[in-house]
Design a protein that fits this description.
alpha+beta; eight-stranded antiparallel β-sheet; five-stranded antiparallel β-sheet
Length: 305
């Protein structure tokens, strides 16, 4: 049974832009009126400081999280531009959302989360223990928590409605959804992006255990990388010096939030269906520090706040 649909706070009113939609973290706008982008086929994508866990949007934001997601995505788009074009057009956003917003090319998005895994953990480990596979891909015997895979694998998921879980699917199912040529291209590009990003992260002492990409087509039918890319929200980053096969590895993400919510201290039960409580200041601060740390370790510079 899925959780009830998340309650999303009202998006800010921005001059020259009309609110189009909101997700757990992002608010999306289309050009309106006589603003500088009027008549252009672009979207304004604003990353809020909202944080979600267990299909709920929490009432307590994490300060500067939206800036980390935006700046890190922009940095990765530049690093990976020789593999596939990206949708980022400009970071010159309205003053109210400066530093946390991207003006992006509008794309026709594929209905597939393009997930790449180089290590076995999370839902992939659960499936492997049950069937010896991940999304239908057979893996060698004897793997365990945090095992490095013989080679990265493409483990796609079908996009779900807001508030529901994406559903892991086989490559064959993706081919049914988008056609075999497009499915093969999605797999190839996803694995190339993952391998390049994993090499960059490894040079900086970070393991990219897994990540998801969203790809779409532009008006000419060319494949383009969209959404956020290689952020702590879309990727599992591990400190390389803390990785031990057979043991859970701490992540540069919202693990502090998940751990507190499932601890007795929170007084909250995942099965209750009730909105989680507000986060303590310590959990917020440690989560914020973790997001900033992975940005600084990857890019080699401090984020301007």
């Amino acid at each position: 049974m899925s959780a009830s649909k998340p309650v999303i706070p009202a998006a800010p009113v921005l001059p020259g832009w009309q609110h189009l939609s909101s997700g757990k973290v992002r608010d999306v706008y289309t050009p309106a009126g006589d603003g500088p982008w009027a008549g252009r086929d672009v979207l304004l994508v604003v990353a809020s400081d909202r944080i979600s866990a267990y299909d709920f949007i929490l009432s307590t934001p994490v300060p500067d999280k939206g800036k980390v997601l935006t700046a890190l995505s922009a940095w990765w788009f530049e690093q990976l531009a020789d593999i596939v074009p990206h949708h980022l057009v400009s970071l010159d956003a309205p003053e109210q959302v400066a530093g946390r917003a991207m003006i992006c090319q509008r794309l026709d998005m594929y209905p597939v989360e393009c997930v790449a895994r180089g290590y076995l953990t999370g839902s992939g480990l659960v499936e492997y223990r049950a069937d010896g596979t991940v999304c239908g891909a057979a893996l060698p015997d004897g793997l365990t928590e945090a095992s490095r895979l013989p080679e990265p694998i493409f483990t796609p998921a079908a996009k779900a409605e807001l508030g529901d879980h994406d559903e892991n699917v086989s490559f064959e199912r993706v081919a049914e959804m988008v056609g075999e040529p497009a499915a093969s291209s999605l797999r190839e590009v996803t694995l190339r992006l993952y391998s390049a990003a994993a090499d960059i992260a490894r040079e900086r002492g970070i393991i990219l255990a897994d990540t998801k990409f969203e790809l779409g087509r532009d008006a000419r039918g060319q494949m383009v990388l969209g959404d956020e890319v290689l952020t702590p929200d879309s990727s599992r980053f591990w400190p390389a010096d803390e990785w031990v096969p057979g043991q859970a590895t701490p992540s540069f993400d919202k693990q502090f939030v998940r751990d507190w919510l499932t601890s007795p201290a929170s007084g909250w039960g995942r099965s209750s269906g009730e909105q989680p409580p507000a986060l303590p200041d310590e959990v917020i601060e440690r989560t914020r520090d973790r997001y900033l740390e992975v940005y600084e370790r990857l890019t080699g510079s401090a984020l301007a706040l």
